[in-house]
Backbone:
């Protein structure tokens, strides 16, 4: 869950992870219906290197979110709980 006080790095990772999830869902649905619904490819297909960079960033974002570490800058754990400094 995305907290209100996430640092920009967590926010970017969160949204890139969702972009990747939605894109892969559309790729799967497109395969069932016989179409190319890969949104990243449709938007950036003329720039293959940029498309690959987006895929790498999506993958790194998902790994970052899976690490369940917290950012010292925003003090928000990835489980949505605030850490208390005592």
Residues:
């Amino acid at each position: 869950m995305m907290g209100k006080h996430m640092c920009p790095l967590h926010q970017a990772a969160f949204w890139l992870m969702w972009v990747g999830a939605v894109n892969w869902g559309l790729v799967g649905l497109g395969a069932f219906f016989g179409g190319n619904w890969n949104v990243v490819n449709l938007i950036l297909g003329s720039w293959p290197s940029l498309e690959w960079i987006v895929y790498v960033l999506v993958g790194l974002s998902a790994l970052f979110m899976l690490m369940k570490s917290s950012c010292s800058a925003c003090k928000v754990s990835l489980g949505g709980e605030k850490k208390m400094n005592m």
In short: The mean pLDDT is 82. The chain is about 60% helix and 0% strand. Residues 7 and 74 are 5 Å apart (CA to CA).
